[in-house]
Amino acid sequence: MRRLLALAALTLSLTVPAAAQDHAADADKAVQGGGALPKGWMARTDRGAPMTNVKFVDMPPGWHINLGPAAIFYQPTDTTTGNAHLVGEFNLFPGATHPEAFGLFLGGTDLQGPNQAYTYFLIRGDGKFMIKRRKGDTTTNVVEWTANPAVVAADSTGHSKNELTILIKDGKVSFMANGKEVYSAAAADVDTKGVVGVRINHNLSIHLSKLQVHRL
Fold first, then answer.
1. How many CA atoms lie within 13 A of 210 on its CB side?
2. How many angstroms separate the CA atoms of 171 and 83, rounded?
């Protein structure tokens, strides 16, 4: 009987889809002291995950963010309607078990509703960047994950520091890492009018030392 039960358990484990096993192994971690945001900030987690596992605190210079679930963070007054220069400085802290993404978003609309939309410019600890557009629950790649020497990869301890900037000027959008352009697009091909903020994927510890919106 024991051999039959063991065989049944083994068979069940083999029939569980690999994606489900991967998701279980990479579940959102628990975060102590979460649930609140600094004054003036708003957030939206992926798939409606509870904010109890989101810790976002004032920590001059800037803010420190420890995540279970992936989320976007923004101040509703940070918006662009025309030419603008967006700047974010991100310090990745050790702790990620594999490369997870973080960076800027722009052109945000209906951010708390079913039709949320924005364009996001993300990097990872492996030195790659990506640009995507979100419309509701659908995302579309503008640029798939691409290695670029302008993106500072995490060191042997898991730490990195990168300044990401987006320049919207005269119908063109330039995406830059540490002062070097990694991609450009026509403003009509991405979202540029709306709220600006940051997107940080799950299980990361990030110090956001700078987030600025300069209207030109």
1. 12
2. 8
For each of the domains in the chain, give its residue range(s) and CATH number, in order of start. Answer: 32-215 (2.60.120.560)
Closest CA to 174 of 195, 165, 124: 165
The three-point CA angle 33-35-38 to 5° equals 95
Helix (H, G, I), strand (E, B) or coil at 64: strand
Q: In this structure, what token pair is assigned to residue 9? A: 């358990």
Other CB atoms within a 10 A radius of the CB of residue 139 amount to: 10
Please tell me the distance from the alpha carbon of residue 208 to that of residue 62, in angstroms, as a whole number: 6
Residue 173's identity, in one-letter code, is V
Other beta carbons within 10 angstroms of residue 201's beta carbon come to 19
The C-alpha atoms of residue 26 and residue 20 are separated, in whole angstroms, by 10
For residue 102, which phi and psi values (nearest 5 degrees)? Answer: -160, 155
Per-residue pLDDT of the chain (216 residues; tens, 9 = 90+): 555 444 444 444 455 454 344 445 679 999 999 999 999 999 999 999 999 999 999 999 999 999 999 999 999 999 999 999 999 999 999 987 788 999 999 999 999 999 999 999 999 999 999 999 999 999 999 999 999 999 999 999 999 999 999 999 999 999 999 999 999 999 999 999 999 999 999 999 999 999 999 999
What is the pTM for the complete model shown?
0.88
